[in-house]
């Protein structure tokens, strides 16, 4: 008689967080609640992304965010959902969003003596939604010293090495949540039938050397000579991998970063003549993804030093970014600083 198949052990993100509470002093009940608030908002955004073509949520909003980028309707929707979840949850003192000029403070968090603040890129790569390309959410979490304090912008102007958690959600062929609390990097895939994120990629380690490079080469003529020379080395065997690299560029930061994190590679968005300070935002994109990457064994650099060492002067400060497999990033840095 055929034996019944054993059920595969499924670890939901909620169960995983509870287990983490026993392993680290960072993952307190309040902190776990904060993560669950972010996760709830991501599920709502997932739902809208998956039916975007069926409702009036595609296209531009007709306005620009504080950085001058055209806002998509989904940008505005995602921003509203994450801020609402953080406000209602009561585990967050304040949030800074790439979509807003200043910070948003939550009185409920102050009254409850919350100790966490969150920086958000609510929907990175949203211009790709019209053509059904993967997009994402990026979040970064800091802890303040005084519970329930009145938060100002200064509380957000801290280097990435002071983060207590960072993560991203990738809305693609499947929706994935990847985050770290400074212990390890773990990935969870949303099971729509259960409505739960389930552990699918435990303890992610990015390869030391990869063979993928991701860059918008349309900007090549405006890039520094060191970057041009590095990209030339990617097209020969004169690199750590000892072979010609493969070019892969989606144009959605979270999607490009996620692929390279798992398979090994480098994503670069250097300074250009048009954007001499770089284009990506230090607080909302570079620092949180850098925190994740370095926890997974990779490296994130502005071309000279780790982005986690950089302290922003403003909420929307931009920064060059070289991120991915450690050997590849160091090789790129050698061209810039040689």
Describe this protein's structure.
This protein folds into 2 domains: 13-201, Fructose-1,6-Bisphosphatase, subunit A, domain 1 (Fructose-1,6-Bisphosphatase, Chain A, domain 1); 212-337, D-Maltodextrin-Binding Protein, domain 2, CATH 3.40.190.80. The protein is 30% helix and 23% strand. It has helices spanning 13-21, 29-50, 73-89, 107-111, 225-234, 253-263, 282-295, 326-337; strands at 60-64, 70-72, 94-97, 103-105, 116-124, 135-143, 165-171, 175-180, 185-191, 196-201, 212-214, 246-247, 266-269, 280-281, 299-301, 318-319, 321-324. The longest helix is centred in the N-terminal third of the chain and has 22 residues, at 29-50. The mean pLDDT is 90.
Brief digest:
It contains eight helices and 17 strands. The chain is of the alpha+beta class and 338 residues long.
List keywords for this structure.
23% strand, five-stranded mixed β-sheet, eight-stranded mixed β-sheet, 338 residues, 2 domains, 8 helices, alpha+beta, D-Maltodextrin-Binding Protein, domain 2, Fructose-1,6-Bisphosphatase, Chain A, domain 1
Identify the strand order in the major beta sheet. 4-3-5-6-7-8-9-10
Main sheet specs? 8 strands, mixed
Distance between the termini: 69 Å
CATH architecture of the largest domain, please? 2-Layer Sandwich
Low-confidence stretches: none
User: What string, H for helix and E for strand, traces the elements in order?
Assistant: HHEEHEEHEEEEEEEHEHEEHEEEH
**Radius of gyration, taken over Cα atoms and rounded to an integer in Å:** 20 Å
């Amino acid at each position: 008689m055929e034996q019944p198949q054993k059920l595969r052990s499924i670890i939901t993100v909620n169960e995983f967080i509870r287990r983490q509470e026993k392993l680290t002093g960072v993952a307190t009940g309040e902190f776990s609640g904060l993560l669950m608030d972010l996760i709830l908002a991501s599920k709502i955004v997932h739902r809208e992304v998956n039916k975007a073509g069926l409702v009036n949520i595609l296209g531009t909003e007709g306005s620009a965010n504080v950085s001058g980028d055209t806002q998509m309707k989904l940008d505005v929707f995602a921003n509203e959902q994450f801020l609402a979840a953080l406000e209602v949850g009561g585990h967050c003192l304040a949030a800074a969003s790439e979509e807003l000029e200043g910070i948003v403070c939550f009185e409920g968090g102050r009254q409850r003596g919350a100790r966490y603040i969150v920086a958000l890129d609510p929907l990175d790569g949203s211009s790709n939604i019209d053509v059904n390309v993967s997009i994402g959410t990026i979040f970064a979490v800091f802890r303040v010293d005084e519970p329930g304090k009145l938060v100002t912008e200064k509380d957000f102007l801290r280097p990435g090495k002071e983060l207590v958690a960072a993560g991203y959600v990738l809305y693609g062929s499947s929706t994935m949540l990847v985050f770290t609390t400074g212990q390890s990097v773990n990935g969870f895939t949303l099971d729509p039938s259960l409505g739960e994120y389930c552990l699918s990629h435990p303890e992610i380690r990015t390869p030391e050397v990869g063979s993928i490079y991701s860059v918008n080469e349309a900007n090549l003529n405006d890039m520094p000579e060191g970057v041009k020379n590095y990209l030339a080395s990617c097209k020969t065997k004169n690199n750590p991998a000892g072979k010609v690299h493969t070019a892969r560029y989606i144009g959605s930061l979270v999607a490009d970063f996620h692929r390279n994190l798992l398979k090994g590679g480098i994503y670069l968005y250097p300074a250009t003549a048009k954007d001499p300070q770089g284009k990506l935002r230090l607080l909302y994109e570079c620092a949180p993804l850098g925190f994740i990457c370095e926890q997974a064994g990779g490296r994130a650099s502005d071309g000279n030093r780790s982005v986690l060492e950089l302290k922003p002067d403003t909420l929307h400060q931009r920064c060059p970014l070289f991120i991915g497999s450690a050997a590849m990033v160091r090789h790129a840095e050698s061209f810039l600083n040689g």
